Amino acid sequence: MNAHPSRVAVDLSAPNDLDAWWLPFTANRAFKQRPRMVSRAKGMYYYTPEGKEVIDGAAGLWCCNAGHNRDEITAAIQTQAAELDYSPAFQFGHSGGFALASRIAQLAPGDLDHVFFCNSGSEAVDTALKIALAYWNISGQGSRTRLIGRERGYHGVGFGGISVGGIVKNRQFFGTLLAGVDHLPHTYNRAEQAFSRGEPEWGAHLADDLERIVALHDASTIAAVIVEPMAGSTGVLAPPKGYLQRLRQICDKYGILLIFDEVITGFGRLGTPFAAERYGVVPDMITFAKGVNSGAVPMGGVLVRKGIHDAFMQGPDKAIELFHGYTYSGHPLACAAGLAAQDIYRDEKLFERAKALEPVWADAIHGLKDLPNVLDIRTIGLVGAIDLASRPDAVGARAYEAMDRAFQEEGLMMRITGDTIALSPPLIITEEQIGEITDKLTRVIKKVA
């Protein structure tokens, strides 16, 4: 006789047991001792199982740009599920995928007019890196295999993304990663940039380190440079004025592809459809995810310039041009949600709204400057970061306590990285709700002093 209860019996007797789910990027043991649970969401707010209101200061995970549970997106998903639940993207297509690709291409600058769909930012980055390598192969420059990332960069969790990424904890447990990868220096210098609003004045010269890398490895070995226009997950590092423009110039000089990872900055976060438009720089590829459908269904993708796309279209007519893709590329439900989200962004002018609210947001967040243990504050678009002083021998403990107290006691959801608080609310936020967030933050920062 089986000494162990069946799975069905276990599920029936303890349907809310917390043991089975191994949460990502989470202190699991601490979480399960004091869970932070949500059960529904609407607009700017989450709600706990007990019905407590929690204002979303992080747009979920940088992704719910149109707010939560928008009726238009929900209806689009429901309708699509009833009509076409799944369609393979290998050798077949559906109208929603083509329609959404066209809408996204219309938002992008320059000739970034082709879209390759995937399911996440991590997949988008690995897709862009593979396209870059394949492009040089079919162009007769197969020696271009080296990829250049940046210190403190976050490009998802695929092996390609963590190889070009520059966040130590994301890399250190996973071996040697991809060979032939180098990194630019990060752009943050507190002594020169403290309490910046928007793009710091200091730091454009850091792009010139790409010249050193080219001299070391030779341009003929370098396929692509990938950077976040704004480095979000490492603690909101805005690009210094002129930095991205200088990177573009150096890449052009040596024929190197430039990839912008806009998984966070895409779809209005910095007041424009893509950060590339804000900075007047046309990269060769843009990765996107998160805000494409306001986080409603997993989706990501890569925008590719015409010349790169067309280089693949030169072989036999019925031959596969790129041996890459995913089972759920361009999933019908994700596309339906994406089209509905794009309508909301357009009709409610949410990108323009983010731009108009940027100075209001900056004033509010920088108003926390004199609170205990605040070392630096950075704002750009509708994003903000607050660096707190670390406790002796307990790096990250102060911000963790702040995050936990914010949720449990104040009804505020926010992101943390180390001892940095990161904020990126839905673009539908009002001035009153900005005040609500800063009031709650004020109390929390004082409590963890």
Distance between the termini: 57 Å
Classify the secondary structure makeup into a structural class: alpha/beta
Tell me the strand percentage band: 15-25%
Unreliable spans are: 1-14
What does this structure look like?
- The protein has 449 residues and is an alpha/beta fold.
- The strands form three sheets. It has a seven-stranded mixed β-sheet, with helices on both faces.
- A hairpin with a 2-residue loop joins strand 14 and strand 15.
- Helix 5 runs parallel beside helix 14.
- The chain starts with 6 loop residues before the first helix and ends with a helix.
Describe, in short, the structure shown.
The chain has helices at 7-13, 28-33, 59-62, 71-83, 95-107, 121-138, 159-164, 168-171, 190-193, 209-217, 243-254, 275-279, 306-311, 332-347, 350-366, 397-410, 431-447, and strands spanning 40-42, 45-47, 53-56, 112-118, 146-150, 181-184, 222-227, 257-261, 285-288, 300-305, 374-380, 383-388, 412-413, 415-417, 420-423. It has 449 residues and is of the alpha/beta class. The relative contact order is 0.16.
List the helices and strands and how they pair.
Layout: H1 7-13, H2 28-33, E1 40-42, E2 45-47, E3 53-56, H3 59-62, H4 71-83, H5 95-107, E4 112-118, H6 121-138, E5 146-150, H7 159-164, H8 168-171, E6 181-184, H9 190-193, H10 209-217, E7 222-227, H11 243-254, E8 257-261, H12 275-279, E9 285-288, E10 300-305, H13 306-311, H14 332-347, H15 350-366, E11 374-380, E12 383-388, H16 397-410, E13 412-413, E14 415-417, E15 420-423, H17 431-447
Parallel strand pairs: 3-13, 5-6, 5-7, 7-8, 8-9
Antiparallel strand pairs: 1-2, 2-3, 4-10, 9-10, 11-12, 12-15, 14-15
Helix pairs in contact: 4-14, 5-14, 15-17, 16-17
